[in-house]
């Protein structure tokens, strides 16, 4: 899908922004609190951009389009409840792919 082209679901086009950093998660105070709550290494922030103005009345379309977008599926990281490993949203042979 080319940049600027409408997405297949809901007309949204999403793009993964891997260079985007979240300095607040790296601050000394936050790192200390995450460690205290046993969350250090178990939380990540990822950025995705989209091509339209968000309209609250279309929130359901937005969410469905996000999780079905071909740029989101292979890039969105999830923490597996069973293994504790980071995996991607994408499916390979019916199973979640590890990253």
Automatic annotation (TrEMBL):
Reply yes or no: does the keyword Cytoplasm apply: yes
Q: How far does the signal peptide extend, from start to end residue?
A: none
Q: What is its main location?
A: cytoplasm
Q: Which InterPro entries match?
A: CFAP300 (IPR029416)
Compartment(s) of residence: Cytoplasm, Cytoskeleton, Cilium axoneme
Q: List UniProt keywords, sorted A-Z.
A: Cell projection, Cytoplasm, Cytoskeleton
| One GO cellular component term | axoneme
Which purpose does this protein serve, as stated in its record? Answer: Cilium- and flagellum-specific protein that plays a role in axonemal structure organization and motility. May play a role in outer and inner dynein arm assembly.
Q: Into which family does the record put it? A: Belongs to the CFAP300 family.
Q: What is this protein called?
A: Cilia- and flagella-associated protein 300
Name the species this protein comes from.
Answer: Mandrillus leucophaeus
Lineage, please?
A: Eukaryota, Metazoa, Chordata, Craniata, Vertebrata
């Amino acid at each position: 899908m080319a940049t600027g082209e409408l997405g297949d679901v809901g007309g949204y086009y999403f793009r993964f922004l891997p260079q985007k950093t979240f300095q607040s998660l790296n601050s000394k105070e936050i790192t200390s609190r995450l460690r205290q709550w046993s969350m250090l290494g178990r939380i990540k922030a990822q950025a995705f951009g989209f091509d339209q103005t968000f309209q609250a009345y279309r929130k359901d379309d937005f969410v469905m389009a996000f999780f079905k977008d071909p740029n989101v599926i292979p890039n969105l990281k999830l923490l597996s409840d069973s293994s504790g490993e980071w995996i991607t949203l994408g499916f390979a042979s019916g199973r979640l792919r590890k990253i």
